Amino acid sequence: MNKLIIIALALSLAACGHSKKKTSDHKSNIDLTAAGATFPLPYYNLAFKTYKDSTGVSVTYGGIGSGGGIRSLKDRIVDFAGSDAYLSEAEMAEMPAPVVHIPTCMGAVVMAYNLPEVKELQLTGDMIADIFLGKITRWNDPRIQQVNPGVTLPDKAVSPVYRSDGSGTTYVFSDYLTKISAPWAENIGTGKALKWPVGIAAKGNPGVAGTISQTPGAIGYIGSEYAFALKIPVAKLQNKAGNFVAPTTESISAAADIEMPADTRTMITDSPIADAYPISCFTWILLYQEQAYKNRPEPLAQATVELLNWLTNPEAQDITTKVHYSPLPASTVKNAKQILKTITYNGQPILK
Q1: Helix (H) or strand (E) holding 349
Q2: Residue 173, domain extent
Q3: Which of 228, 249, 280 marks a domain boundary?
Q4: Residue 289 near residue 305, CB atoms below 8 Å
Q5: Which of 27, 217, 343, 351 is most buried, taking the most CB atoms under 10 A from its CB?
Q6: What is the model's pLDDT at position 20?
Q7: Mean pLDDT across the stretch 151-163?
Q8: Is residue 309 located within the same domain as residue 237?
Q9: Quick one: which of 100, 58, 98, 60 has its CA closest to 83?
Q10: How far apart are alpha carbons 301 and 222 in whole angstroms?
Q11: Could you say which DSSP state residue 275 is in?
Q12: Pair 108, 252: CB distance under 8 Å
């Protein structure tokens, strides 16, 4: 995997801006620039390549974390941003113009661990919280042993690994723990960047995955594809119904069996559905609702919206399961299509 290269690529975004963009309305001359969440990066890499092969439109996406992507969008140096955390009302108000959220796929934040002697592991949400609070420090802690009968847990130090950068994955993870653990809610809370009491810091999902794979006794939260790609085992987690569930296409999709708000801004962690994986989430692409800004040519705006429309189509949604994500529910696709119709250029809808 060369996903770390993508992070380095993003460092040039501020310098290059739209310098490489063509104003021709010929699609093959259009290059789109984006940055943000590393969580959906494997899906975006494959989807954007597929789109380029069929349309000629290329997309340079820098995996710099959701926080970095949102900052880049705020500074108007990218065409769109990727984020696993939706903007709050306060964050929306801080943007220079109205922003819309387009959901692109669903995924799971998994608890990946490095214990070669343990082939299967089960954890509860409060145990995970206490690991990252520094209250559980050994793998053979009686609480972990209690939910893993028949498993020989090693007398080895637990080394939690967390994100050092502003991260939507961190937001999803901490949103789940805030719902599960009162001590976590009181002392840490929910956010893209947190003050961690213990653990090892690493940048991006690739960085956390790499640190876990190289650190005996480590455990950390990452997008499921990163665990599968590096062959790092992941724990089954106890959901709200009391069942221990593995992250699968089916268990992730089950978590989305909710009434979706029209703007799609919602969290689906700690779902009450019996077979739902408890740290499931949507991931979004964020862009300005009015696309005529900063001398932005209309063909560029058109290409951006057409790409996002394609991402919600069956061809793109079918790609999700190839890289361990889940497709959007039909109701979410419907909402996304409605939002796309509200995106304008000089006040006129881009999608006809």
Answers
A1: strand 348-349
A2: 108-280
A3: 280
A4: no
A5: 343
A6: 39
A7: 97
A8: no
A9: 100
A10: 33
A11: T
A12: yes
Question: In 3D, which of 264, 280, 276, 269 has the Cα closest to residue 324?
Answer: 280
Separation of alpha carbons 9 and 4, rounded Å:
9
Residues found in the chain: 352
> Which pair of structure tokens corresponds to residue 70?
């949102």
Position 229 confidence tier, pLDDT thresholds 50, 70, 90: confident
Beta-carbon neighbour count of residue 82 at 10 Å?
Answer: 30
Residue 201's contacts (CB-CB under 8 Å, 6 or more residues apart) are: 161, 162, 163, 164
Asked if 239 and 271 count as a contact pair (C-beta separation under 8 A), the reply is: yes
pLDDT at 4: 38
Same domain, yes or no, for 197 and 293?
no
Q: Are 138 and 146 in contact (CB under 8 A)?
A: no
- Concatenated DSSP letters of 120-159: --EE-HHHHHHHHTTS--BTT-HHHHHTSTT----S-B-E
Measured CA to CA, the distance from residue 289 to residue 281 in angstroms comes to 23
Distance between CA atoms of residues 251 and 237, nearest Å: 11
Q: In the prediction, which pLDDT does 230 show?
A: 87
CA–CA distance, 148 with 331 (Å, rounded to integer): 38
Domain count, the chain: 2
- Residue among 53, 72, 52 nearest 62 (CA): 72
Per-residue pLDDT tens digits for 273-300:
999 999 999 999 999 999 999 999 999 9
Q: Are residues 253 and 310 in the same domain?
A: no
3-state secondary structure of 39: coil
- Per residue in 3-34, pLDDT tens? 333 334 443 443 344 433 433 344 568 999 99
